[in-house]
């Protein structure tokens, strides 16, 4: 069998070298892309954890009637407003229902001195609409970050690779640790200067001055004085830290049993 002429062989060799280089570069790029994707996903997951836990705590606080009533009792709101406890409970339920409804305007009727009484004036109603908007932002952030976190967990567990599962456990611990650090900083700010924190929160969160209410005539601020918001902020921070410790504890238990399974 005659060998191919040199002018045929050389292009073939060049083509093979080019294909080999192409495959090598493609393989390297795919590995790098996979590495970048995995690491970006993991760090996004870690950053999602503080957000999920904090928004969960806020959601729980907003929908906890007992927290409202705790504030009513602690700050003697019945005396300040001249409303009976049963009417204060009705106000708390009305607020929670409003925050979770599609209604734009809140209209809570209570009885004061045995007469029906519209609890909030127009300025308070407008401010509560703004507050409801913030609460729904919290809800949507919670849904978005929770969805991403759950998808990430499902994908990692679906791969069934010990390496990825260990990375998931590490990410959960890191995210929980980051949560605790954030909440400690928040707690420090609240304890040292809550007045400034409260003021800056309102200046950043609202584009109007409807939140500047009169405690002598506006029932919204009578129901929820600044002391209540101090307590509610600490409640959210402590609950968030508690959830972070719960996650860390569950991960440690999982790693302990995984280690025992490997040994035995």
Descriptive notes:
The radius of gyration is 29 Å and the shape is elongated. The protein has one domain (about 5-264). The chain is mainly α. It has a two-stranded antiparallel sheet with strand order 1-2. About 80% of the residues lie in helices and about 5% in strands. It contains eight helices and two strands. Helix 1 crosses helix 5 (about 120-160), helix 2 runs antiparallel to helix 4 and helix 6 runs antiparallel to helix 8 (about 225-264).
In short:
The chain is mainly alpha-helical.
**Span between N and C termini?**
64 Å
- Range of helix content: over 70%
Order of helices and strands: HHHHEEHHHH
Identify the overall geometry.
elongated
Q: Could you give a short account of the major beta sheet?
A: 2 strands, antiparallel
Instruction: Work out the helix count.
Output: 8
Unreliable parts:
none
| Total number of strands | 2
Structural class: mainly alpha
How many domains, as an integer?
1
**Spatial order of strands in the largest sheet:** 1-2
- The percent range for strand residues is under 5%
* Rounded Rg: 29 Å
Give the averaged pLDDT, no decimals: 88
Question: Main traits of this protein?
Answer:
single chain, 264 residues, mainly alpha, two-stranded antiparallel ribbon, 8 helices, 2 strands
């Amino acid at each position: 069998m005659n060998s191919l002429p040199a002018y045929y062989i050389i292009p073939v060799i060049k083509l093979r070298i080019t294909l080999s280089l192409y495959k090598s570069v493609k393989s390297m790029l795919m590995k790098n892309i996979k590495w970048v994707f995995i690491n970006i996903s993991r760090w996004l997951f870690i950053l999602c954890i503080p957000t999920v836990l904090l928004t969960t705590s806020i959601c729980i606080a907003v929908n906890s009637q007992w927290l409202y009533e705790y504030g009513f009792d602690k700050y003697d709101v019945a005396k300040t407003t001249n409303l009976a406890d049963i009417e204060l409970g009705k106000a708390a339920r009305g607020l929670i229902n409003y925050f979770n409804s599609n209604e734009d305007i809140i209209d809570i009727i209570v009885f004061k001195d045995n007469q029906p009484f519209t609890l909030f004036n127009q300025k308070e109603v407008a401010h509560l609409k703004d507050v409801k908007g913030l609460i729904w932002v919290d809800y949507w952030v919670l849904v978005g970050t929770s969805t991403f976190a759950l998808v990430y967990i499902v994908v990692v567990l679906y791969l069934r690779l010990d390496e990825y599962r260990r990375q998931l456990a590490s990410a959960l611990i890191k995210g929980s640790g980051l949560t605790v650090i954030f909440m400690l900083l928040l707690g420090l700010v609240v304890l040292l200067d809550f007045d400034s924190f409260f003021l800056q929160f309102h200046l950043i969160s609202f584009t109007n001055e409807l939140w500047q209410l009169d405690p002598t005539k506006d029932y919204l601020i009578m129901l929820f004085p600044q002391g209540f918001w101090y307590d509610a902020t600490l409640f959210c921070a402590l609950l968030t830290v508690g959830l972070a410790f719960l996650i860390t504890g569950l991960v440690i238990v999982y790693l302990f049993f995984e280690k025992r399974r490997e040994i035995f």
